[in-house]
Design brief:
The longest helix is centred in the first third of the chain and has 23 residues, at 15-37. Helix 1 (5-13) packs across helix 2. The chain has three domains: 1-51; 57-226, Beta Barrel (OB fold (Dihydrolipoamide Acetyltransferase, E2P)); 232-496, Rossmann fold, CATH 3.40.50. A hairpin with a 5-residue loop joins strand 9 (289-290) and strand 10 (296-297). It has helices spanning 5-13, 15-37, 237-249, 254-262, 273-284, 313-323, 337-340, 357-360, 376-380, 383-387, 424-428, 432-435, 450-468, 474-478, 481-491, 500-516; strands spanning 80-90, 94-104, 110-113, 142-144, 150-160, 174-180, 192-203, 214-225, 289-290, 296-297, 303-307, 327-331, 342-347, 350-355, 365-369, 390-395, 398-403, 407-412, 440-444. The strands form four sheets. The chain has a five-stranded mixed β-barrel with strand order 1-5-6-8-7. It has a five-stranded parallel sheet with strand order 12-15-18-11-19. A two-stranded antiparallel ribbon has the order 9-10. The chain contains 16 helices and 19 strands. It is elongated and about 105 Å long. By secondary structure, it is of the alpha+beta class.
Length: 529
């Protein structure tokens, strides 16, 4: 764009024609460098060089070069576009033929033929000999030259729109993507990616009594993983200084500063500071430990809210999903074991893995409302994902392990009226092994206290009145949702170390919990300790 705007415009509008020029130029530079090496030039021969274009990083990118997956139209056909999404399906790596030499039987003219990827990689021979001799040949009989077939690595994946960016009722759209050469196996299901490529179309498979259609497909030129890149949460230096200045003010009264921050979490819910503190600590997470033997203690905590209807459990779940940079929210009735973990699907005669909610939320938060509505079989499938942070699959000949470094935030209603005299397992009908995987379980009860009901109702009416007048409290104005997101992302990078006094307190509490929880199915485990 800076050096040759005209060429940049041609590259965007006709990438299939102009990208090979860049590949040839890179090959010419490479050959020139090898010539300078002299005797070493034969020892460093490599495969052909491919030029990769990252349009998303350009400050002067074309306005129509980055559509969402659901808004890709015919006007983008054959253009160089950039799509953002999450990998939900990944196929195996194959070899595909991309060039073969033919020879005319009459004039012995040799010419290359490239299979059409859009037509199922079929080879279409010319009607007449393409010889450019003055007399012309006119023959239509050709033969393959043995040993001239050239192949490339090939992999097909599918990406889906980010669910967080869609409105309620919108179905996330998906797009198949073709990776070639060094791009294959560079990403896995669950990764957030930005892919630059050429939009093309491919005929759907021939199925009896089904009309064939042209399905859009993206021929990738460049792939960038954005799991570790939180561009929307980049902390400006002035914001970082603001956080440091805030704690400098409350250096002598840290609990007062902590409570000031917690007021910004679910401000529409009155009180419940313990729950708000637990939500904040769950999102911030802990520190993962891996000892010399390879035993891993996870750093992502899990939280479960058990409470009567109307105590604000779902509100906490939805607010936590907004605070997390990567989140998936679902309900117990709308989730199965395959939807939560991984499912095997058959596409074009080949089995592929399609990522579920826990895999898509890798590195983020997975909120499951109505946890008790899930079937017992579906609940047991997430045991490994919650403790070992992996999902092992053996389906349709596909045996692999996927990462699920995910924080699970669940909410459930008690079975009937909550009985404080009974154990948590009896009140929730959840099994002991599953309850032991939650690091913190909070019980919210509707005590039917007249004084408390009066305070809560006044708070709700005051919030509603302030919204109508477009007024907010000072604390809400200071700690808004974007600022809380930045703050949580900021403190995640800290690696706290326990003091000797803190270790002694935690050890004593752990021993006391183990003694009191002898007959409780959901007692404190070693990993939680």
């Amino acid at each position: 764009m800076d050096i040759d705007p005209k060429f940049a415009g041609k590259l965007y509008s006709c990438p299939g024609e102009y990208l090979p020029f860049l590949d040839k130029a890179a090959k010419r530079v490479k050959d020139a460098m090898l010539e300078e090496l002299g005797d070493l030039k034969d020892a460093v021969r490599k495969k052909p060089v491919r030029v990769r274009i990252d349009v998303s990083g350009s400050p002067l990118e074309f306005p129509e070069a980055s559509p969402s997956i659901g808004k890709v139209r015919v006007k983008h056909m054959r253009k160089l576009i950039t799509l953002k999404g999450t990998v939900i399906r990944s196929g195996g790596v194959k070899m595909i033929e991309y060039e073969r030499d033919y020879m005319c039987r009459k004039c012995q003219h040799r010419f290359p033929v490239c299979p059409e990827l859009e037509a199922g990689n079929r080879i279409k021979l010319p009607a007449l000999c393409p010889s450019k001799s003055s007399r012309g040949c006119g023959s239509a009989s050709f033969q393959v030259i043995e040993g001239t077939t050239m192949c490339r690595d090939y992999q097909e994946i599918k990406i889906q729109e980010n669910v967080q960016l869609l409105g309620v009722g919108s179905i996330p759209r998906s797009m198949p993507v073709i990776l070639m050469d060094d791009l294959v196996d560079s990403i896995k299901p669950g990764d957030d990616v930005i892919i630059t490529g050429i939009l093309s179309a491919k005929w759907s498979p021939d199925i009896k009594d089904v009309r064939s259609n042209l399905d859009p497909i993206l021929l990738a030129n460049y792939v960038r993983r954005t799991n570790e890149l939180k561009s929307d949460l980049d902390i400006p230096p002035e914001t970082e200084e603001e956080f440091k200045h805030f704690w400098e003010e409350y250096r002598l009264t840290p609990l007062k500063g902590r409570n000031f921050i917690l007021e910004g979490i679910c401000p529409q819910i009155f009180g419940l500071f313990t729950v708000k503190l637990a939500v904040a600590l769950t999102l911030i997470g802990g520190v993962q430990h891996v000892d010399a033997s390879g035993t891993k203690v996870r750093g992502e905590p899990h939280m479960l809210l058990v409470g009567d209807p109307g105590t604000g459990k779902s509100q906490f779940l939805k607010f936590a999903a907004k605070l997390s940079n990567r989140s998936v929210i679902t309900t117990g009735l709308g989730s199965t074991s395959a939807g939560l973990t991984v499912t095997a699907v058959k596409d074009g005669g080949e089995w592929m893995l399609e990522a579920g909610a826990l895999v898509l939320a890798d590195g983020g938060l997975c909120c499951i409302d109505e946890f008790d509505s899930m079937r017992e079989h579906d609940r047991t499938t997430i045991h490994e994902a919650m403790e070992q942070q992996t999902i092992s699959i053996a389906k349709a000949g596909l045996v692999t392990t996927l990462s699920t470094r995910t924080t699970v935030f669940g909410a459930t209603n008690p079975k009937g009226k909550y009985d404080p005299d009974e154990s948590l397992s009896v009140n929730t009908t959840l099994s002991g092994p599953l309850l032991s995987r939650f690091d913190i379980v909070l019980v919210l009860l509707d005590t039917q206290n007249d004084d408390w009901d009066k305070i809560v109702s006044s708070h709700i009416l005051k919030e509603s009145f302030d919204e109508k007048k477009d007024k907010t409290n000072a604390s809400d104005a200071n700690w808004t949702l974007p600022k809380l997101r930045r703050y949580i992302n900021y403190v995640k990078w800290f690696k706290p170390v326990l003091t000797k006094e803190a270790e002694r307190v935690i050890s004593s509490y752990y021993q006391r919990q183990r003694k009191s929880g002898t007959h409780n199915a959901a007692r404190t485990t070693h990993m939680q300790g």
